[in-house]
Amino acid sequence: MGSLMSQHNSVHEPLSESWLELQHISKGYSLNKNAIDILKDINLTVNAGERIAVVGPSGIGKSTLLHIIGTIDRPDTGCLLFEGKNIFSFDDLQLARFRNEAIGFVFQFHHLLPEFTALENVMMPAFIRGISQKNIYPKAEHILVRVGLQDRLHHRIGELSGGEQQRVALARALVLSPALLLADEPTGNLDKKNSEKIHQLFIELNQETHMTLIVVTHNQGLAGCMSRRITIVDGQLQECNHNEMV
Q: H or E segment at 196?
């Protein structure tokens, strides 16, 4: 796959070692009046440019962890530090601005807007930031070509296959060159060939732009591309041996 580096890309320089840090994060839910603890006093340090896979069986809290790191969900207790700032001290408007500027998301369900084309969906985060179509169009087109959708730019979402929709969602997450990419089963709807292309794209992005990756996955190939693998056991984080099963 070709280089992503172009006049439309910015490069994220390495920051401090403790670039992202979770301190004493806990999160629980109430189900039929019963308290269920999902995360229990979680601590995690992420260095700038790391590639981390969150692995393990369904239902252990992987997506909950990702949503807290992405500030979509607030923890019951604890702090999320980004470049030394406690992000959960922000109000909702500040959090929304932070997410738009710093984080790209790829969800298990793509959440694309069906009335718009692939290209329009990819440009949407830029419009939210106030970037004009003239300025974002070349970058959006470039990243869609990069994920193999050069022939689908002007197709509406309903005209795309599930795998193509997932690649549009990935392009949308990448279009503003976020410092942190969070992905929840990003290749779950892709065949083996396209999954491997996305795995390679993740590695290239990490190497070219120093983008930090945190990926929830059951895919052995994708997990194997990451520099660290972690799992959750009884609400606690554990580092995985690289040979352990996903």
A: helix 192-209
d(CA 200, CA 73): 30
Nearest-10 Cα torsion for 232, 72, 216, 83? -80
d(Cα 11, Cα 211) in Å, to the nearest integer? 8
With H, G, I as helix, E, B as strand and everything else as coil, classify residue 51: strand
Confidence band for 23, pLDDT divided at 50, 70 and 90: very high
C-beta separation of 78 from 26 below 8 A: yes
| Residue 15: both structure tokens together | 């920051």
pLDDT digits (tens, 9 = 90+) for 160-196: 988 888 889 989 998 988 999 999 988 877 788 878 8
Q: How far apart are CA 167 and CA 189, in angstroms?
A: 9
Pairing of β 20-31 and β 34-46: antiparallel
Would you say 57 and 216 are in contact if contact means Cβ atoms under 8 Å apart?
A: no
Pairwise CA distance, residues 119 & 156, whole Å: 9
Percent of the chain exceeding pLDDT 90 equals 50
The pTM of the full predicted model, rounded to 2 decimals, is 0.83
C-alpha angle with apex 167: 164 to 170, nearest 5 degrees? 160
Question: What does the alpha-carbon distance between residue 174 and residue 167 come to, in Å, rounded to a whole number?
Answer: 11
Map tokens 């949503």 to a residue: 67
